[in-house]
Amino acid sequence: MLKGPIGVFDSGYGGLTVLKAITTKLPEYDYVYLGDNARAPYGNRSFDTVYQYTLQCVKWFFKQGCPLVILACNTASAKALRTIQQNDLPHIDPQKRVLGVIRPTSEIIGRFTKTGHVGIVGTTGTIQSQSYPIEIKKFFPDCNVYQQACPMWVPLVENKEFDNPGADFFIKKDIQQLLDQSNQIDTLLLACTHYPLLINSIKKFVPPSTAIIAQGDIVAESLEDYLLRHPAIENSCSKTGRLQFNTTDNTVDFNEKAAFFYGQPVQSEYVIL
Ligand code: DGL
């Protein structure tokens, strides 16, 4: 197999918080990022729509020569990953791999809690899919998992309202609804790639001892471990430290917002899927 870059996918900007953690931990690899901004957000879309969109993007990554694609989007991981892995990959190219963010997070989230009560916040799609409770129970059967959909949080971040009182209103309301389900929640998983940008506001509304867990570092560590355990895939990943950003929408808008999610200037290319 020819060597190629690792693909990192998100519906829009959020996956850049995961990409940042990955490129910081594993800077030697080449990466191609794709934000499907033209069709974002995915959070409220149906299973079939998220699956069709995600599959189309995965095929685009394969055309770029990516041997491995990370769905750095909880909604796509929840609604599309399993079908792509089980039904599509065997036909498209059984040598290639597509991984998500739900399993690596579920594998370790139970280590953070002392009470065994874990709260999950995510998009409506991620929460409705029940993916987190199902996956977490596999690794931590005694864990009690409570969920809250927070449909306003992504628009707040995308409109740069995250540090404003308006954001506090919605964050307080949703966190309260989560905490009302159990007063023993001591671990809060931010199961959406946008939410780390709301952390200052989130901290105001949870007990100070709460462990607030973002996924970037978890996914980066899990990828490092995966590459160690799968030498054939690792061997097919090119390593010149190249990083390429792509969007399905306006590149000027993307560059401006992406710089803020990624933490440094970004130059993107427009792609037609
Ligand atoms: N990236 C998505 C996620 O992690 C949030 C944005 C969207 O709804 O498309 O769930």
What's this, in brief?
The chain is an alpha/beta fold and 273 residues long.
Characterization of this structure:
The longest helix is centred in the N-terminal third of the chain and has 17 residues, at 47-63. The protein has 13 helices and ten strands. It is globular, with a radius of gyration of 18 Å. The chain has two domains: 6-100 and 217-270, Rossmann fold (3-Layer(aba) Sandwich), CATH 3.40.50.1860; 103-214, Rossmann fold. It has 273 residues and is α/β, with parallel strands linked by helices. The two termini are 24 Å apart. Helix content is 47%, strand content 16%. The chain has helices at 15-25, 47-63, 74-79, 81-92, 102-109, 124-129, 131-139, 153-158, 165-179, 199-204, 216-229, 231-235, 251-262, and strands at 6-10, 31-35, 68-71, 97-99, 117-122, 144-149, 187-190, 211-213, 243-247, 268-270. The model has no long low-confidence stretch (mean pLDDT 96). D-glutamic acid binds next to α3.
Any descriptors?
273 residues; alpha/beta; Rossmann fold; 2 domains; 6-stranded parallel β-sheet; globular; binds D-glutamic acid
- In CATH, the topology of the largest domain is named Rossmann fold
Strand content: 15-25%
| CATH class division of the largest domain | Alpha Beta
Proportion of helical residues: 40-55%
Biggest pleated sheet: 6 strands, parallel
Distance between the termini: 24 Å
Radius of gyration: 18 Å
The overall pLDDT average reads 96
What is the element string, with H for helices and E for strands?
EHEHEHHEHEHHEHHEHEHHEHE
Count of DSSP strands: 10
Give the overall silhouette: globular
Uncertain runs with pLDDT below 50, 5 residues or more? none
Task: Assign the structural class, choosing from mainly alpha, mainly beta, alpha/beta, alpha+beta, or little secondary structure.
Answer: alpha/beta
Say which molecules are bound, naming each kind only once: D-glutamic acid
Task: Report strand order across the widest sheet.
Answer: 4-3-1-2-9-10
The CATH architecture name of the largest domain reads: 3-Layer(aba) Sandwich
Overall tally of structural domains:
2
Number of helices, counting only DSSP H or I runs of 4 residues or more: 13
